[in-house]
Amino acid sequence: MSARCAQQTDAPSAAEDAGIWCARMSEGPLSVVDAAALREWLETDPGNREQLALAQLLWSELDQVASTPEIISHRQKALMSFRKAQQKRWHQHIKPYWLWGTGAAAALVLAFGANWSLSRPVIYETGLAHRSTVTLSDGSIVALDADTRVEVHYASRHRDIRLDKGRASFTVAHDKTRPFSVSTGAEVVVATGTAFSVERLSQQVRVVLFEGRVKVLHKVGAVMEPQLALNASGEATDAGRLLVPGKQLMLTTGAGSVKGTVAQVMTVAQSSNRNWEIGQLEFDDELLPIAVERVNRYATARRIQVAPDASAIRISGTFNAGDIDAFATGVTVAFPVRKVVTADQITLVKSD
Predict the structure, then answer these.
(1) CA 338 to CA 352: how far, in whole Å?
(2) Hey, is 322 helix, strand or coil?
(3) Domain CATH number, residue 174
(4) Which has the higher per-residue pLDDT, 210 or 187?
(5) Residues β-bridged to residue 266
(6) What angle in degrees, to the nearest 10, is found between the helix axes of 14-26 and 46-64?
(7) Which residues cross the membrane (predicted)?
(8) What is the mean pLDDT of residues 144-159?
(9) N or C, which terminus of the chain has less Cβ within 10 Å?
């Protein structure tokens, strides 16, 4: 390829450049010249480093499924094209990462990898007593409580997340062209440019809105319908209209729910619903079984059980996440319960 031809061709995008470098690095150690060129490219634009990281992630995904025939075919074409391009290297004043043959090959694999990645959800999961915060590819931030699992599926027209268990808060990057939705069970929360949390409990789904607006939908058969909630007059209305910053939606699910269940929307202290992100579990007139379910996300040894006779007791207070014994002792001091301790369990029962 001549320099004249190169000048007639648009320069590759940052994503294509990143794909080129992935293809080059897969061939082995960089030469001194190429290493210097890579450093220069990374320093040209702060976004180049992010593009390279994304390209490397996609390339690593190809490694994980390298035995797939389609992957083998695309990757072989990419590397073959790269080798041919290396044999036709331009003059030294032409940067080595502006090789069209390499770019086309790398872009082919990058595009294939992107499509492959979009078709497979990315799973983020925390274990007992471990929290995590991740930044998604669009800049949205997800904070995961302990014992939480989410699946992220991004595509060109939508950003879908499924909360399988636990609790997560979302700070959503604004993008009107790709609605951001979080589903758990039959409930779907749709948001664009907002901050909220979704929690999946054994018998409830809770949504707390911190900023912006959301829509709350409920799946009925194959149709998504607005979730209903009671307004101040006791009338069932669209829950999304009632759920404003500082409000919490609570919906009964599981064995305790009935078809067409109407949700409750109530005022909550935002701090009490975000302090878990810094290791504090705060309860305000909370049912004991709900509080214990949250505490048990941090139980690595003995777990807490609530006896049926204590299930209607409500508690308030702030506790350190992970200090199971302190929680059990604290509630027995402040509320009408006592504890029965065994080697692997603490049972809270109603005081006589």
Answers:
(1) 9
(2) coil
(3) 2.60.120.1440
(4) 210
(5) 248
(6) 50
(7) 97-118
(8) 94
(9) C
Q: Which amino acid is at 298?
A: Y
- Asked if 305 contacts 345 with a C-beta cutoff of 8 angstroms, the reply is yes
Domain count, the chain: 3
Q: What is the C-alpha to C-alpha distance for residues 125 and 148, in angstroms, rounded to an integer?
A: 6
Residues 265 and 283 placed together within one structural domain of the fold: no
3-state secondary structure of 342: coil
Q: What is the pLDDT of residues 90-148, one digit of tens each?
A: 434 334 433 444 444 454 445 545 454 445 789 999 999 999 999 998 999 999 999 99
Same domain, 28 and 134: no
Same-domain pairing of 254 and 147: yes
Percent of the chain's residues with pLDDT above 90: 51
Termini Cα distance of the chain: 89
Choose among 172, 76, 150, 155: nearest CA to 117.
Answer: 155
Which range is least confidently modeled, 11-20, 112-121, 200-209?
Answer: 112-121
Cβ proximity of 213 and 191 under 8 Å: yes
Q: What's the CA gap between 150 and 198, in Å, rounded?
A: 11
Mean pLDDT of 160-179: 94
For residue 337, give its domain range: 279-350
Which residues are CB-neighbours of 319 under 8 A, at least 6 positions away? 280, 281, 282, 283, 295, 326, 327, 330
Assess whether 260 and 154 both reside in one domain: yes
